[in-house]
Amino acid sequence: MSSPTPTLTAAPAAAPAVREPASKPAETEIVAATADVATPPVLATAAPEIEQKPRDRGPAKKVAIGILGLFAVIMSYHVLSDYFAPTSSTGSVTAMTAQLAPRVAGEVQQIFVADNQLVKKGDPLFALDPRPFDLTVRQAEAALGTALQSVDASAASLEALRARVTQAESNLETMRAAASRAQTLFDKGISPRAQYDTAQSQLTSAVTAVDAARADLLSNEKRLGNEDASNPQVAAAQVQLEQAQLNRQFSTIVAPADGLITNLKLAIGQYINAGSPALTFIEAEKPWITVDLRENQLANLEVGDTAGILFDATPGRTYRAVVKGIAWGIDTGRTNANGLPQNLSSTRWFEPARSIPVQLELAEGEEWPRNVRVGSKANALIYSGGEANPVAWIAGGLQTVKSIVSILF
After folding, report:
1. What's the rounded Cα separation, in Å, for the pair 391 and 48?
2. How far apart are the C-alpha atoms of 260 and 282, rounded to whole Å?
3. Percent of the chain having pLDDT more than 70?
4. CA gyration radius for the chain?
């Protein structure tokens, strides 16, 4: 008995997939070839359901986390560096400078230096015409001579007054003796009353003459002076002479110390007034570096802390330095009106931090760079927490990189 012929069903070429529930298993159909073609059976598997999955946002999330982490690291380092290794790129080189001006007025006759020239202490810088000062000295000398002559004449007069006092005193003694004899004779009834009265009158006149002579002598002694105090006229003339000689000396301006001359503003024949700046003098003493640090950078800072200095004029090299001083005050700009301090109004959301100057000097053994000038820019890194900590290592490494990179700009 023959078996029944199976029904051949051709699978459609582009039949859409039938979506079934995810829990139902896929069915298998036996697909045979057409009746006149012997085709092996084909197994057709129903297409499984395609599950909708959310987009993979892993890379963006990782980038965001990385940025936040980097920001947190930078902020942490910023806070720690302010405490353990404060730094500032606003430093500048400072030195003792002074604007030299003559103490007397006059016409410039000689200029002994050139601009930006090194000088030693006592070297002449420029000189004024000395002739007016020489005349003043001669006038003062003449005035002193006149005063001395007057004193000599007065001294002779003083001797005459002393002789007059001596004579008056001698006459007084004579009159006293005569008055005593007249009184004795009058008491004994030998001489008349008139002779006694005459002797007493002469005695009174002698006393008066002595008092007048002594008064004249004392007055002249006070006016002319004595061995303990010089004559006022002579003293005044002596002071005028010394002032004239001093002005003559001031007509030549000399270097107050070893240093350098700059900003020279003089020409031969120029008239310059007393106190008018003629040039700038920079003292040759070792300069220092002044850096401005925010107040929160001073929390751990102390005098004596070591530091690293980077000058723009010497790229690629870091110099050792030491903190020498921290300023105790700054000007806040507050003004007064009607006896009361004025309000400092501000429209900013965040008030900017105030800066305090800190003074640094190169460490012992460090030679000052030859091409670093007063006012040159400097970058300072201060190791307020010591140099043996990770923050100091990182800060030192960044400064080293900065010193190398500074060659490019």
Report:
1. 60
2. 5
3. 79
4. 55
- The CATH number fitting domain 102-130+251-276, selected from 1.10.150.20, 1.10.3720.10, 3.40.50.360, 2.40.50.100: 2.40.50.100
DSSP structure class, residue 328: S
Q: Can you give the residue ranges of every domain in the chain?
A: 85-95+284-329+353-408, 102-130+251-276, 132-247
CATH number of 85-95+284-329+353-408: 2.40.30.170
DSSP for 122-172, written as a single string: T-EEEEE--HHHHHHHHHHHHHHHHHHHHHHHHHHHHHHHHHHHHHHHHHH
CA 334, 336, 341, 344 dihedral sign is negative
CA distance 48 to 26: 7
Are the C-beta atoms of residues 220 and 157 closer than 8 Å to each other? Answer: yes
pLDDT tens per residue across span 282-330: 988 888 999 999 988 898 899 999 999 999 888 888 899 999 999 998 8
State how beta strands 377-382 and 318-326 pair: unpaired
Distance CA 151, CA 251 (A): 33
Question: What pLDDT is recorded for position 62?
Answer: 80
Give yes or no for a contact between 90 and 370, defined as CB atoms under 8 angstroms apart. Answer: no
Q: How far apart are the first and last CA of the chain?
A: 105
- Measured from the Cβ of residue 358, the count of other Cβ atoms closer than 10 Å reads 26
259 within 8 A of 117, measured Cβ to Cβ: no
d(CA 210, CA 173): 10
Which regions of the chain are under pLDDT 50? 1-39, 42-44, 46, 226-229
Reported as a single tens digit per residue, the pLDDT across 217-262 is 777 666 665 444 467 778 888 899 999 999 999 999 999 999 999 9
Residue 142 to residue 148: CA distance in whole angstroms? 10
Query: What's the pLDDT tens digit per position in 107-123?
Result: 999 999 999 999 999 99
CATH T-level fold of 132-247:
Four Helix Bundle (Hemerythrin (Met), subunit A) (1.20.120)
For 248-280, b/e burial (b = at least 16 CB within 10 A) is bebbbbbbeeebbbeebebeeeeebeeeeebbb
Residue 242 CB partners (closer than 8 Å, separation 6+): none
